[in-house]
Amino acid sequence: MQSGISASPDLHSTFHTYLSTPALFALLITITAERLEPLLTISFPTSTSTFLSSLSALTPHLTPTQPLYIILRHPRDNVHQQQQEPPFTAITYIPDHAPVRAKTLFASTRLTLVRELGAEKFSDQVFATEAADLSRDGWEKWEEHGKGEAPLTREEE
After folding, report:
1. pLDDT digit string, tens, across residues 66-105
2. How far is C-alpha 130 from the chain's CA centre?
3. Crossing angle of helices 9-19/100-117, nearest 10°?
4. Which of 20, 34, 113, 135 is the most exposed place for a label (fewest CB within 10 A)?
């Protein structure tokens, strides 16, 4: 399902700046007047901050009623370089207590966001419903879950 919403020129410009500025950790995006619009960028707290330690910078912006799109930058570590993965993750944050219309709008527009910004720029897409999902502990659980083997069908067992 698609919503008919598209990225604004301001979002494209802000995203380009975000891509070319390694000190920027996160780009928060919202939907305003039927357009995907940049909300704000968040820098890495310090020049030596890790990805996991920087997640706490998101906390003040995650409310239990307001959906957001969040683009996160993984520092270029050996894992991303060896696997030649893009260092960005697209997150759709739709809290359980958000208004139904907002939930539907954000859920139906998430693929448009990634497509318009360039799907090749993202190594992962994550769907989160609680602020705790985007904490250090929540992210570590998500990564651990992703490392597990896919379940087998009865025929494969």
Report:
1. 999 999 998 755 454 555 667 899 999 999 999 999 999 9
2. 13
3. 60
4. 20
